[in-house]
TrEMBL record, chain A:
Residues 1-25 form the signal peptide. Residues 28-352 form the Leucine-binding protein domain. Belongs to the leucine-binding protein family. Gene3D superfamilies: 3.40.50.2300. SUPFAM superfamilies: Periplasmic binding protein-like I. InterPro entries: Leu-bd, Leu_Ile_Val-bd, Peripla_BP_I. Keywords: Amino-acid transport, Signal, Transport. It comes from Rhizobium fredii (Sinorhizobium fredii). This is ABC transporter substrate-binding protein. It comes from the Bacteria. Pfam families: Peripla_BP_6. GO terms for biological process: amino acid transport. CDD domains: PBP1_ABC_LIVBP-like.
From TrEMBL, chain B:
GO terms for biological process: D-alanine transmembrane transport; L-alanine transport; L-isoleucine import across plasma membrane. PANTHER family: BRANCHED-CHAIN AMINO ACID TRANSPORT SYSTEM PERMEASE PROTEIN LIVH (PTHR11795), HIGH-AFFINITY BRANCHED-CHAIN AMINO ACID TRANSPORT SYSTEM PERMEASE PROTEIN LIVH (PTHR11795:SF371). It is a multi-pass membrane protein. The lineage of its organism: Bacteria, Pseudomonadati, Pseudomonadota, Alphaproteobacteria, Hyphomicrobiales. CDD domains: TM_PBP1_LivH_like (cd06582). It is found in: Cell membrane. This is Branched-chain amino acid ABC transporter permease. Its main location: membrane. It comes from Rhizobium fredii (Sinorhizobium fredii).
Automatic annotation (TrEMBL), chain C:
The lineage of its organism: Bacteria, Pseudomonadati, Pseudomonadota, Alphaproteobacteria, Hyphomicrobiales. This is High-affinity branched-chain amino acid ABC transporter permease LivM. Its main location: membrane. One of its GO terms (molecular function) is branched-chain amino acid transmembrane transporter activity. The keyword Manganese does not apply. One of its GO terms (cellular component) is plasma membrane. It is found in: Cell membrane. It is a multi-pass membrane protein. The keyword Ribosomal protein does not apply. It comes from Rhizobium fredii (Sinorhizobium fredii). InterPro entries: ABC_transp_permease, LivM-like. Coiled coil: none annotated. Keywords: Cell membrane, Membrane, Transmembrane, Transmembrane helix. It comes from the Bacteria.
Length: 374, 305, 434
């Protein structure tokens, strides 16, 4: 009975919110949020949406931009290029958005950003780390995430200098993010004169990596670097432990999610697991404000939630900084100013890449909570 | 050293293969009776993983600590609920299409597959879910550094799939239901003339197929610990491949196909390349079908003129 | 049915449906996993089960009305019979075709960029559907890896531009040849196999192509994909500034730049290609080769006994289907400006197959309609947000159950000896008797 009451309360609340938003709709600023809301990557799309809407709610509560409320529009591309183009055209023609947070996958961002560039719409991707995204000299394209090469340099240093291991097995998931990261790391290691003992790609969507784990064991690796996402990282970590391998497991910022604990089967498997991520709020005062706000709204600070939040912050800052002006003014402002975001103090270069993106390494405590590792 | 690595890869392959086999049974039985590829089968398996985890969590909240009791009750509950799913899907999406073209149920199966995935995503969220470790520890062979092992959970998988297959074989070979199944498989119309309620038989086949997938789902969930709403897709394609490899329509064929596929994947991944293991598996399938067009154990349909 | 029994039957049905939906929806939507525990949301399955039960009762009541009874009678009347034969009195609908053609050509003037993009995608799927229709609908070979040829066409343009300087028109001319060659390579091992074994082999072939595209990083760019140059028309480029050494379209004509021109151009070329393919397929159907495909689909043994070269016949179907898929791939690549392997998964093959089956196996008009429905539907459903795929799946099942033989029932042309017009009523009578 109690839950029915809750349900009714929720519906009436949603109804009143809907009414409120339609009352404002005449003078809102529309911002599109594009990502995979369905399909294999839906969990990340949800996070980006949660992060972006958390920040926009704050801005709206504080009076919006020049008294205008911001309205977010959701665009589901399922990480398929063909749907990404449809979403982009819809944002431009039907929803008439002012700026876009997205897309999530590089393979969606690349074709969609051509359309945004033609229409002159500011685009900030929270997660597309592929170099091509910004290397095409599109004026309107920015990202709040690091490039693959930036993260790999940090990871190489961490494995070789902090962990002092040089027998590295490189595993990737044959996808843009994972493979890009691992290939960049391979290059970094080669510059230091270290050849990986193993370089393999696993198949996304599978759960059984025992054969690969046995292969890692026979390669004699002391460290495993995995470029990939939680659904594959979880079982891989667990199977490495179950087969009794004494290796350190290092991975990228995709692991910065609370669900890694249940995906790996419990905190006992997260010993010797490290990942790089945006700076810790305790060390980086720039991010403290955002982390605080998320905590207040009772939202888990998952990786892509933070990046979605940061992308929304970037867009709002550009709109405010240019006095809600033309796209060129927004772009100019972003190139010349830094923004305090949920992932650190960000400043951009000519291409739209973040200058000196800061990565920090984390490991897990007994309960599976992240703690700084350096 | 090399011996233990090989032994370990064999263990890996056989465990994976018996799971493929369990899921493949559902494809093969349905195909045998109504000559239809049930593309929603992989997603029925996915649903069973969720049901298993939910049941386990509910048992935990009632303070059930005994692991064997937990495993068995999760198996029973999951098989039942997944069986109901199988029945409902057949009733809603396939029975109205009986007597239509052969491809019509294939398309509604794709629709059902999309529906199940999306329903679970909406209801349970897209995030990865997990279950805690129930059985840990392993049998080890060799020295402290060089060893091959089989975990107790892998043993449970082998035993459970063996038992499930034994029950199924008994069901098909020695019971009235099984005889009616086989008769329906041979000729649905003549069986109906002889008094077999073919609609009921087809429904039972869907229930049995779904329940077998549920056994696979429970075992996979307990062994690998994590799942999401999308796991049905890859598993579905793999199990379908296994069913065809063994000869679709043949129960022992499904098991053999599963084992061959699992071993191929493990050995190719272990000794050649993980990147190309799926390419190799499909290429092997094409080669086998080239020499044995009806799969390893499939019987050719003799066409008389 | 006896009217007095209705309430009892309804009650039984309602209770059964309610219990069944509780079991089905109960655990998944009632208990939500959070970490290793569950959150209780048991109200949800109760609501869903009530809705389903009410729907079921209303549906049963509807079937008891006179309209419902007529509906059942109609379904029962048409479900069994297979093919209808033309009576010989049909006129080719010149006016309708001419209007459709004119509307299609004028469409870019009416639509905005979004709907133009959707229309381009829909036409690409029409092309894919037409190609697969030759293989599945006409020749009866179940192909689950059709996406492979689509990928071949798309990557031909992307990689051809990168390594050989191939342009849009060159790729458009080469794609049918190369895709047909791939079709031939696949068809040789496949011809030995029957029915569903063929399905899995083609599925395997499709997956192999995708995996190789994904894994062969140095050549294809792997998951990072490959960029595709914008199309050119008589050396005029459709980009803001010339990137391929020509003149931009808008500068040549002295008009201001707009991205729309590129899409208009792609749409018009694609529309003409689709029209040409429809024409060719319709001619093929009444040519000897088309008749052989259909005859082989109906009874292979009889055909072979009559001396039909079944290898050549099947091979020609595969190659023609594949070449159409290859052309569609070129258009897809040029429209996207970028290709990567995620566009060529097994799900695409399934979608194309759904177009063919939903359209009515072998029917050209049906394929066109189904392709439009299945590509435009997901866009229309965007307002459902995360329920979009759920609704799409439900509609797919409903459409299939509603029209098990496809949207358009095919009519076979009948041939009558011109000297004996009396045969026409006799045939029509025979058909009615069926």
């Amino acid at each position: 009975m109690k839950s029915i009451g809750k349900f009714l309360a929720a519906t009436s609340l949603a109804g009143s919110l809907l009414a409120a938003s339609s009352a404002f709709s005449a003078e809102t600023i529309k911002i599109g949020v594009a990502g995979p809301m369905t399909g294999a990557n839906a969990t990340f799309g949800e996070q980006v949406w949660t992060g972006a809407s958390a920040y926009v709610n704050e801005v709206n509560a504080a009076g919006g931009i020049d008294g205008k409320q911001i309205e977010l529009v959701k665009g589901d591309d399922a990480c398929e290029p063909k749907q990404a183009v449809a979403v982009a055209n819809r944002f431009v023609d039907q929803d008439k958005v002012k700026a876009v947070v997205g897309h999530f996958c590089s393979s969606s961002t690349i074709p969609a950003s051509e359309i945004y560039a033609d229409a002159g719409i500011l685009t900030v991707t929270p997660s597309s780390t592929n170099p091509i995204v910004t290397d095409r000299d599109l004026d309107t394209m920015f990202r709040t995430c690091g490039r693959d090469d930036q993260q790999a340099v940090v990871a190489g240093g961490f494995i070789l200098d902090t962990l002092k291991l040089d027998k590295v097995a490189l595993i990737h998931d044959k996808d843009t993010y994972g493979q890009g990261l691992v290939d960049a790391l391979k290059k970094t290691l080669a510059e230091r004169g270290v050849e990986p003992v193993l370089y393999e790609g696993l198949t996304r969507g599978e759960r059984d990596f025992n054969a690969l784990v046995t292969k890692i064991k026979s390669s004699g690796a002391t460290a495993v670097y995995f470029g990939g996402l939680i659904p594959e990282a979880g079982p891989l970590i667990r199977q490495i432990h179950e087969q009794g391998l004494a290796v350190k497991f290092v991975s990228g910022d995709a692991l910065a999610q609370t669900e890694i604990v249940s995906a790996a089967g419990g905190p006992q498997f997260l010993k010797d697991v490290y990942y790089s991520s945006a700076a810790d709020p305790k060390q980086d005062p720039d991010t403290a404000e955002a982390q605080e706000a998320l905590k207040k709204a009772n939202i888990a600070p998952d990786n892509y939630t933070l990046f979605g939040y940061a992308s929304a912050q970037t867009i709002v800052a550009a709109l405010k900084g240019s006095n809600n002006g033309e796209t060129e003014a927004q772009v100019d402002w972003l190139r010349n100013n830094a923004v305090k975001t949920a992932v650190g103090n960000l400043a951009w270069n000519e291409k739209g890449d973040v200058k000196d993106f800061k990565f920090v390494f984390y490991s897990f405590d007994d309960k599976g909570a992240p703690v700084a590792a350096n | 050293m090399d011996f233990y690595i090989l032994a370990q890869q064999l263990v890996n392959g056989i465990t994976l293969g018996s799971i493929y086999g369990l899921i493949a049974v559902g494809y093969t039985m349905v195909y045998g009776v109504i000559r239809m590829i049930n593309f929603a089968h992989g997603d029925v398996y996915m649903v069973s993983a969720y049901v298993a985890a939910i049941t386990l969590a509910v048992l935990h909240s009632f303070g059930v600590d005994s692991v064997p009791f937990a495993i068995i009750s999760v198996l029973v509950v999951t098989c039942f609920i997944t069986g109901v799913y199988g029945w409902t899907i057949e009733r809603v999406a396939y029975r109205p299409l009986r007597g239509s073209t052969k491809l019509a149920p294939l398309i509604s199966a794709i629709g059902i597959s999309l529906m199940l995935q999306s329903y679970v995503q909406v209801a349970q969220g897209a995030r990865d879910q997990g279950v805690p470790v129930l059985v840990s520890g392993a049998l080890r062979l060799g020295t402290d550094k060089d060893f091959a092992q089989i975990t107790y959970m892998q043993l449970v998988i082998l035993v459970a799939s063996f038992v499930a297959m034994a029950i199924l074989t008994y069901l098909i070979s020695y019971t009235t239901l099984g005889r009616q199944c086989r008769a329906t498989q041979q000729n649905r119309h003549i069986s109906a003339v002889l008094g077999v309620n073919t609609d009921r038989i087809i429904s039972s086949v869907f229930v049995i197929g779904a329940a077998t997938a549920a056994v696979g789902g429970v075992l996979v969930t307990f062994n690998y610990g994590s799942f999401n709403f999308f796991i049905g897709f890859v598993m579905g394609i793999k199990a379908f491949t296994a069913a065809v490899l063994g000869g679709i329509g043949s129960l022992p064929g499904a098991i053999l196909g599963g084992l061959v596929l699992g071993l191929t994947e493990a050995l190719f991944a272990g000794y050649v390349s993980t990147d190309y293991k799926d390419v190799f598996a499909f290429a092997l399938l094409i080669v086998i079908l080239f020499f044995r067009p009806y799969g390893l154990l499939g019987r050719p349909e003799i066409q008389k003129v | 049915m006896d009217n007095a029994k209705i309430p009892a039957k309804l009650l039984k049905e309602a209770v059964f449906t309610f219990v069944l939906s509780l079991i089905v929806f109960g655990p998944i939507s009632g208990l939500v996993l959070t970490g290793f525990t569950v959150e209780n949301k048991l109200a949800r399955p109760l609501i869903i089960a009530s809705v389903v039960t009410i729907g079921r009762v209303l549906f049963t009541l509807f079937l008891e009305t006179s309209l419902g009874r007529r509906l059942i009678a109609r379904m029962a009347g048409t479900a069994g019979s297979g093919v209808t034969v033309e009576s010989g009195n049909e006129r080719f609908p010149y006016a309708a075709v001419a209007i459709a053609f004119a509307v299609g050509l004028a469409f870019p003037l009416m639509a905005d960029e979004y709907w133009l993009g959707v229309a381009i995608l829909a036409l690409i799927y029409v092309l894919l559907g037409l190609g697969l229709n030759i293989v599945v609908g006409l020749a009866g070979l179940l192909d689950l890896g059709f996406v492979a040829f689509y990928a071949v066409g798309a990557y031909l343009l992307a990689l051809g531009a990168q390594y050989l300087g191939l342009g849009f028109w060159g790729a458009l001319a080469l794609a049918p040849l190369i895709a047909a060659f791939c079709g031939m390579v696949l068809a040789f091992p496949v011809l030995r196999m029957h029915g569903d074994y063929l399905a899995i082999v083609t599925l395997g072939f499709g997956e192999i192509i995708r995996l190789v595209l994904n894994n062969w990083l140095d050549f294809t760019g792997g998951p990072n994909g490959a960029a595709v140059p914008a199309p050119t028309f008589l050396g005029l480029e459709f980009t803001r500034t010339a990137r391929q050494g020509g003149t931009p379209f808008h500068e040549f004509f002295g008009i201001s730049y707009s991205a729309d021109y590129k899409f208009w151009f792609i749409y018009l070329v694609l529309f003409l290609v689709v029209a040409a393919v429809i024409y060719v397929v319709n001619r093929l159907k009444s040519m000897p080769i088309g008749r052989l495909w259909e005859a082989l689909r109906e009874d292979e043994i009889a055909c072979r006994s009559l001396g039909v070269n079944h290898v050549a016949t099947k091979l020609s179907a595969f190659m023609l289907g594949a070449s159409t898929g290859g052309v569609a791939g070129v258009f897809f690549a040029v429209h996207q400006g970028f290709v990567n392997p995620t566009s060529f998964t097994f799900f695409e093959s399934a979608l194309i197959l759904a177009i063919v089956v939903l359209g009515g196996l072998g029917s050209t008009l049906g394929v066109v309609m189904a392709a439009l429905v299945l590509t435009i539907l997901p866009e229309v459903l965007r307002d459902f947000a995360e329920y979009r795929v759920l609704v799409f799946g439900i509609l797919m099942v409903v459409m299939m159950v509603w029209r098990p033989r496809g949207l358009v029932r095919i009519k076979r042309p009948a041939f009558f000896p011109s000297s004996a017009p009396a045969a026409v009523p006799a045939l029509a009578a025979a058909e009615a008797a069926q």
